[in-house]
Amino acid sequence: MSSVGNRSDIVTISRQGNGGSLQTHRVRVDVHSIPSSIDARLVRVSSLKAIEIEKGPRGLGFSIAGGRFSSEGDLPIVVKTVFPNLPAEKSKRLLPKDQILRVNGQDFTVLTRNEAIKFCRKLPQGPVRLLVRKADESM
User: Fold this and answer.
1) pTM (2 decimals)?
2) Residue 118 is inside which H or E element, if any?
3) Residue 108: enclosing H or E segment and its boundaries?
4) What is the pLDDT of residue 7?
5) Which residues of 83-98 are buried (b: 16+ CB within 10 A; e: fewer)?
6) Which of 21, 24, 35, 74 has the most CB atoms lying inside 10 A of its own CB?
7) CB atoms within 10 A of CB 19
8) In terms of Cα–Cα distance, which of 85, 94, 27, 92 is closest to 57?
9) Among 48, 51, 64, CA closest to 22
10) Cα(45)–Cα(31) distance, rounded to whole angstroms?
11) Tell me: the pLDDT tens digits for 5-60?
12) How far is it, in rounded angstroms, from Cα 106 to Cα 32?
């Protein structure tokens, strides 16, 4: 991964704790963790959010669109739908149009939609870490 800068910034990590309560922590993230395929001059680090979702027996609870070689060309992988009563919705952190940059360290900016789906399906049940660029924050 190539370097995108010599700084770090604060991001918010939220996860669903025991009993369904939402736990939020603010941590410092090195911008070197931003995938090298993203032009750092265009990304506001404050729009990046690290999110942890607990994968259950029915999956993570969201669908995706986009990806490399999509019918519309190379597009970022974004959340298409958040399904009710599943982990993504229960986390209250992932929303449609959020761009998925990484999942458990895997760079999603270089994957096709099918590769991203296969990767997520192979993940074991338990905590899954996502790095997303929130759709509600303009660049």
Assistant:
1) 0.67
2) helix 113-122
3) none
4) 45
5) eeebbbbbbebbeeeb
6) 35
7) 5
8) 85
9) 51
10) 7
11) 444 455 555 555 556 555 555 555 554 555 555 454 444 555 899 999 999 999 99
12) 14
**CB neighbours of 22 closer than 8 A, spacing ≥ 6?**
14, 15, 16, 91, 92
Joined together, the tokens standing for residue 37 give 């395929």
Whose CA is closest to 110, among 27, 50, 30, 37?
Answer: 37
Tokens standing for 71? 């019918």
Distance CA 47, CA 132 (A): 8
Query: Using CA atoms, how far apart are residues 35 and 18, in angstroms rounded to an integer?
Result: 32
